[in-house]
């Protein structure tokens, strides 16, 4: 037999009754009620809180930056832009499967790698053009 991790304890000020007229509440070990760590974690309820509804992140589909990743594939930094494209596709797949946090994380990584690829590609193209105009490079 497996032992239970729940117990019954008398909680002061508890309005819930267990049917015998005693103020006891049965709780699990992992679900003990504790005081909030800071005043910012206090919540008066879902309907009365306007700060959480306005400051909440976008509830729609997370961005996967696929267009940016495809655009970065035209830059001559092939390992970075291919990885950015893979992260973008993984972000889209995670979003379609319902993993919003994973999709956001992968989308941010795709955006970062795409931007790095575009910047490095632009630097490489500018260096190549400036050195070929001088005549130092002949390919």
TrEMBL record:
Keyword Phosphoprotein: no
Protein name in the entry: TUSC5 protein
Record field: transmembrane: 65-89, 110-131
InterPro entries reported in the protein's UniProt record: CD225/Dispanin (IPR051423), CD225/Dispanin_fam (IPR007593)
UniProt lineage: Eukaryota, Metazoa, Chordata, Craniata, Vertebrata
Entry-linked PANTHER family: NG5 (PTHR14948), TRAFFICKING REGULATOR OF GLUT4 1 (PTHR14948:SF1)
Subcellular compartments: Membrane
GO cellular component: a single term: membrane
Highest taxon, organism lineage: Eukaryota
Taxonomic source organism: Fregetta grallaria (White-bellied storm-petrel)
Keywords: Membrane, Transmembrane, Transmembrane helix
Protein family: Belongs to the CD225/Dispanin family.
